[in-house]
Amino acid sequence: MTEKGRHTDTARGGLLAWIEREHCAELNLCNLLEKIADHLLEPLDRELANTGILTLRHCVKRHVALEEGYLYPVLARRAGRDELTEAMLVQIRGEHAVDECLAHDTADQLELALTRGHVEKPEMLGYMLRGFFECRRRHIAWEDAIVLPLARRLLAEEDFHDFSAEAFEEGAGAGNFFEFSPRAKCGCGCGHGS
């Protein structure tokens, strides 16, 4: 640990690597939701549905907390009055807000299906599931292609002295991400979490 009690992963590379692991975790969630959507005409897999519900209730909130609480404030400061960066951050915050609502609405509908013992309107739930995971996949791809390279170019290690992986995990609730946790092996082939 460093003198302030933080591990060396509080540096720029550590935070960005943490965000990449979170992206992998979210892509795994998208795969799980796609599997549920593909089988809505069959009896609902209770274990998958419960995992999906609990993860939906926390994954986007956790993603937003990580990026908007740590990455975007320093990115905005370093970028100054660059209009493109300002517009990008406004767009991302808007997507985060919409995705949080979609995540909770989708979790509510999955929970209702579990309570009833069947999916009453499979077309509607399938549309919601696909809408959510397709938006998340696009959002993550955009962040991986645009935001993270911009952060690597503009930010320095001292920009992230306020980030502590341990404090973030404590505040965000590590257990809320289940097997999609960045500490778990991703399974996406990226090597994170191994």
Give a written overview of the molecule.
The chain is mainly α and 194 residues long. The chain is built from five helices and no strands. It has helices spanning 12-38, 46-79, 83-116, 122-154, 165-172. Helix 2 (46-79) packs antiparallel against helix 3 (83-116) and helix 3 packs antiparallel against helix 4 (122-154). The radius of gyration is 18 Å and the shape is elongated. It starts with 11 loop residues before the first helix and ends in a 22-residue tail after the last helix. The relative contact order is 0.21.
Q: Which tags fit this structure?
A:
194 residues, mainly alpha, 0% strand, disordered C terminus
In whole angstroms, the N-to-C terminal distance is 22 Å
**What share of residues is helical?**
over 70%
Count, helices: 5
Strand content: under 5%
- Average pLDDT, rounded to a whole number, is 80
Helix and strand pattern: HHHHH
Shape: elongated
Uncertain runs are 1-11, 175-194
Indicate the structural class.
mainly alpha
Total number of β-strand segments? 0
> What is the radius of gyration computed over CA atoms, rounded to a whole number of angstroms?
18 Å
